[in-house]
Amino acid sequence: MRLPSLAGDPAGIDEDEVVRMLRYAIDHGVNYLDLGYPCDMEWHERLARLLGRALKDGYRQKVKIAANLPSFLIDSPADFDRYLDDRLKWLQTGCIDFFLFGGLDRETWPRLQEIDVLSRAEAAMADGRIDKVGFGFHDYFQTLREILDAYDNWALCQLQYSYMDIDHHPGVGGIRYAASEGLAVVVTESLKGGRLTRKPPESVAVIWTDAPKNRPLADWGLRWVWNHPEVATVVSDMSTLEQVAANVALADAVEPDSLTVPEEVVIGRVRDAYRKLRPVPCTACRGCMPCPLGIDVPRIFELYNDAVMYDDVETARSLYRIERHDIDSCNECGACVAACGLKIPITDRLKEACKLLAGWK
Ligand code: SF4
Ligand code: SF4
Q1: C-alpha to C-alpha distance for 350 and 361, rounded to whole angstroms
Q2: Does residue 299's CB lie within 6 angstroms of at least one atom of ligand 2?
Q3: Which residues contact 29 (CB under 8 A, 6 or more apart)?
Q4: Short-list 45, 49, 38, 97, CA closest to 72
């Protein structure tokens, strides 16, 4: 369970209700709480203090807490200690069970290695401020392998995974590899930030109608992830006590390897139906990379495809903005077009993507 994502005005949240939700979850078996990735520091601090309050009265002893270090903000070993000590103070605890290097990928990992923050993590484990270290990851299988192979003491990795992510970022191969290396695999975004629970497009809706069981869409999505024996736990944002109650009841009822073949077939058909809606048939193979001007073609196509597939332009636009893509700098050199095995007319499709994501005319 991730600390509730409380949409709207942070000042307007009902903190007593959040404490009730957290304690209900713990009373019903939730034993892992993830503070989440710190996008807004002020808000993050408030959530951490709230979690600390909820874990008083003996609740701290019943759960493991995970906290994320924002890797892209770490410039020195001292930053590591400052971020850790702040969280210990806010959470009012002497030890964080799992301290994660958040957002590791091919760019952040070499930088963290250079700064040698792992030696700071080792020191924090030795003095008891951390019990174990892990990392959050969003990149391709090869990078995951490099990170796992570089350090023997990883305890946990957190990956985005849903029935739409079976073969990328880093897909089922990454989940299996991490588990085979002895890491606890924690899954996030199992419902793709809620996009898999919205009203589906017609071509998908008819498949759900024919499904062997009539279930809520969230139920299908979570069952599919929990069906993997390699997955240790799934964290999910919840905003109401009803959602917490529904999710803990479902978690109690589902076992790994319990989906039937007809159920797997239905989910496979749903995946195919969504994929048919993609405007660009990019497989994210990254054969066209690197672009000499640093344009991340596969990622831009992914945002474009997701916006259309899930009819959710708003999320795609904000990610495009946050990730600071810059298609304006493309000089149409054609290097990516020549490298694409699928012969996608990349420069033309990038212009289409930008019309949608950046509001180009
Ligand atoms: S055409 Fe544009 S996106 Fe493709 S490699 Fe050249 S600069 Fe990069
Ligand atoms: S080479 Fe083609 S299919 Fe592969 S990531 Fe680039 S655009 Fe996508």
Answers
A1: 13
A2: no
A3: 248, 251, 252
A4: 38
pLDDT value, residue 319: 87
Q: Distance between CA atoms of 206 and 190, rounded to whole angstroms?
A: 22
pLDDT of residue 6: 47
The whole-model pTM stands at 0.88
**Cα dist. 178→147, 155, 175, 184, 324 in Å?**
10, 10, 5, 8, 30
What pLDDT, on a 0 to 100 scale, did the predictor assign at position 9?
53
Q: Where in the chain is the domain with CATH 3.20.20.100?
A: 10-260
Q: For residue 161, how many C-alpha atoms fall within 13 Å in the half-sphere facing its CB? A: 31
- The reply to whether omega before 290 is within 30° of 0 (cis) is yes
pLDDT in tens, 210-253: 888 889 999 999 999 999 999 999 998 788 899 899 999 999 99
Q: Which of 259, 179, 262, 183 is nearest to 227 (CA)?
A: 259
Q: Whose CA is nearest to atom 8 of ligand 1?
A: 291
Token pair in block for residue 333: 């050199």
Tell whether ligand 1 has an atom less than 6 A from the beta carbon of residue 291: yes
d(CA 347, CA 163): 30
How many residues comprise the chain?
A: 361
Comparing CA positions, the residue from 193, 144, 181, 174 lying closest to residue 36 is 193
For the segment 278-311, what is each residue's pLDDT rounded down to a tens digit? 999 998 888 898 899 989 999 999 999 999 999 9
* C-alpha 15, offset from chain centre: 25
2 DSSP β-pair partners: 34
Pocket test for ligand 1, best of 282, 286, 297, 352 (most atoms within 8 A of CB): 297
Residue 79 has pLDDT above 50, yes or no: yes
Q: Which tops the pLDDT comparison, 233 or 44?
A: 233
- Domain spanning 10-260: CATH 3.20.20.100: yes
Environment class of residue 208 by beta-carbon count within 10 Å: exposed (0-12), middle (13-18) or buried (19+)? middle
Q: Whose CA is nearest to atom 6 of ligand 1?
A: 333
Q: Does 29 contact ligand 2 (Cβ within 6 A)?
A: no
